[in-house]
Design brief:
Structural class: alpha/beta
Largest sheet: 8 strands, mixed
CATH architecture of the domain at 51-172 and 215-301: Alpha-Beta Complex
Number of strands: 23
CATH class of the domain at 51-172 and 215-301: Alpha Beta
Strand content: 15-25%
Helix content: 40-55%
CATH superfamily of the domain at 51-172 and 215-301: 2-enoyl-CoA Hydratase, Chain A, domain 1
Radius of gyration: 25 Å
CATH topology of the domain at 51-172 and 215-301: 2-enoyl-CoA Hydratase, Chain A, domain 1
Distance between the termini: 41 Å
Number of helices: 23
């Protein structure tokens, strides 16, 4: 109904989206032509003796090496488009470096990494494990963001540019409230929810954050920061309280290299041009030319990464928002057949579902959960490994696992459901649209985006949401073997860190994908005779061509397009919201970065 309304009535809105699409296609064809002319380069280096694995801590990090989504906001507002690095490739490369006799050390080049805390924690844990091999890790940055520095503290030696700084500042996030924006567009929302802390609806119906929402985030961030701060302090041999003092009293993030060195945050000051020679000397070579610097892709390319045959543990990646129609995120209609195929595949002896999702559609979550029940019916172990987020619908699809692993900094829980029903009658008036409805019943066109909900409709929706919440509670209670009363006490839409979730029984162990795979293999009695298969299979896209040429610079920007001069990101947000089904199991819209 909502889609039909927009296609038939909001012609100027759709026209805007089409115009952007045309411009985007023009850019794509332009780049394809560029690729055809310059050709695609390929890395030809090998893992020979005196190699050093170089990890570039810059840009974003995704869960796996999948084709990135076409993000309109990034296309319009950013300097260009970059394919993110893959966490599973980075971790595998570090593991390979530990056992490869030709690799002498790891070199971290800090350049402003952008990733959620759990991703950085997983990367750091892999580096800490690498050090057990007896090999060294060295890190350098012109400046180090907090995310860079958190990972880099796993290094044996930290080098900083004399004019650089260490950006430790604490942890937090900003939630954007859209009510004022939608008021300008002419769209209002009726929110129906279950759970005191189920605050995902707040940005659309309130102008400020509620006290319960603020309280849960305050607890969450303090718990997570305590973990990050403790790891940094332990690695650098200083007290955790000293970290807080450096932030709040010394404003160390505004200082320069010498201040960071005196505070024992780094070991030495140097310039980047000197680092290759330093690395050579540190691994016992006379000059930089004697060192073979290799990328994670080269190291992983020489392994059997993801190339399982015969008995295997399948690692299935479920990343993004859960919906039924989107090409990005977790499309239940695409993921369910993969789960069924894995269940029916005799070579697949166990499944590790890697969940990195804030939730989404209740219907989509239910379909995925049913497919996972089918997998378990085959007598195969089903294990969950949680990434940055496994909340709301993300927890819904996790709850029935035989074992749940999470990172200490994972954000999970958010057991609750909400509904958002839009009313675009004011928008229609602004556009000069006159609409007449003829129907056999007042509810024939429900939900009607041109009219407010009636009291009867609101009551019926509340009953639907309540029923969905009860189903959610029952699923968690059965899956986690907990009394429903306890689940209700820790539900209410509240989010928890991985550490807190373990204490509450929502998570079994703190660990990563590797730990989950080992547990699943042991549960399936595979011994050491198994491979690891990665699913779904990676599908190449136009963005692979784009990223092959490096960053694609936009030659023009669209600054003000749309109804009433509203910016494109606002229009896109409205479009996405109006396409969603009313019933959602989605966590509070919060992005946390270090």
């Amino acid at each position: 109904m909502l889609k039909k309304f927009f296609l038939n009535s909001l012609s100027s809105f759709v026209g805007t989206m089409v115009a952007i699409g045309v411009c985007g296609l023009a850019l794509v064809f332009l780049v394809i032509g560029l690729v055809a002319r310059i050709g695609l380069s390929s890395e030809t280096a090998s893992v020979k003796n005196r190699s050093v694995l170089v990890i570039d801590l810059s840009g974003s990090i995704s869960e796996s090496e999948r084709a990135p989504e076409m993000d309109l906001q990034e296309l319009v507002l950013s300097q260009g488009i970059n394919k993110p690095q893959a966490l599973n490739v980075l971790v595998k490369a570090i593991d390979e470096a530990a056992s490869n006799k030709n690799v002498k050390a790891v070199y971290l080049k800090c350049g402003g990494v952008s990733a959620a805390p759990a991703t950085l924690s997983a990367l750091r844990a892999a580096l800490v494990e690498f050090k057990k091999s007896g090999k060294k890790i060295y890190a350098y940055g012109d400046s180090m963001s907090q995310g860079d520095y958190y990972v880099a503290t796993a290094a044996d030696s930290l080098f900083l540019n004399p004019e650089g700084s260490v950006g430790i500042q604490g942890m937090g996030s900003t939630t954007m409230f859209f009510k004022g924006l939608f008021d300008k567009i002419g769209i209002k929302f009726t929110a129906i929810k279950v759970g005191t802390y189920k605050s995902a609806v707040e940005p659309y119906v309130q102008e400020t954050m509620s006290e319960p929402a603020r309280a849960q985030l305050d607890t969450l961030f303090n718990t997570m920061w305590g973990e990050v701060r403790g790891s940094i302090a332990e690695a650098r041999g200083i007290k955790p309280e000293r970290i807080d003092s450096l932030i709040d009293k010394d404003y160390i993030f505004l200082g320069q290299g010498d201040e960071a060195r005196k505070a024992r945050l780094v070991d030495a000051l140097t310039y980047e041009r000197q680092m290759d020679s330093k690395i050579a000397a540190l691994i016992g070579e006379k000059k930089a030319d004697d060192v073979n610097f290799v990328t994670p892709q080269i190291l992983v390319g020489s392994s059997d990464f993801g190339k399982a045959s015969g008995s295997q543990v399948a690692v299935l990646y479920a990343e993004g928002e859960i919906q039924e129609t989107t090409d990005g995120g977790i499309n239940c209609h695409k993921l369910v057949p993969v789960i069924v195929e894995l269940a029916d595949n005799d070579d697949v002896k166990a499944l590790v579902l890697r969940v990195n999702s804030p939730g989404g559609s209740v219907f989509g979550s239910q379909q995925i959960a049913e497919a996972l029940r089918y997998f378990k019916s085959k007598g195969k172990p089903f294990v969950v490994s949680m990434g940055d987020y496994a909340a709301s619908g993300g927890y819904w699809i996790s709850a029935d696992a035989d074992r749940i692993f999470a990172n200490a900094l994972t954000i999970t829980g958010s057991i609750g459901i909400f509904g958002l029903i839009p009313d675009a009658s004011e928008l229609a008036t602004k556009l000069g649209l006159g609409l007449e409805t003829v129907a056999t019943s007042p509810d024939a066109l429900f939900p009607n985006v041109l009219k407010s909900l009636t009291p009867g409709q609101t009551e019926a929706l509340q009953k639907m949401i309540n029923k969905g919440y009860d189903q959610f509670i029952a699923r968690v209670a059965n899956g986690r073997n907990l009394p429903e009363s306890k689940v209700r006490a820790i539900a209410e839409g509240r989010v928890w860190s991985g550490l807190a979730a373990k204490e509450l029984g929502l998570v079994d162990e703190i660990g990563g994908v590797g730990d989950a795979v080992k547990w699943a293999a042991k549960k399936a009695n595979l011994g050491d005779n198994y491979g690891v298969g990665l699913y779904p299979e990676n599908e190449s896209s136009i963005w692979d061509l784009l990223s092959a040429t490096g960053t694609i610079e936009a030659t023009a920007r669209f600054e003000q397009i749309g109804v009433g001069g509203l910016p494109v990101p606002a229009m896109r947000k409205a479009w996405i919201m109006l396409q969603r089904k009313p019933e959602q199991a989605l966590m509070v819209p919060v992005k946390v970065y270090l």
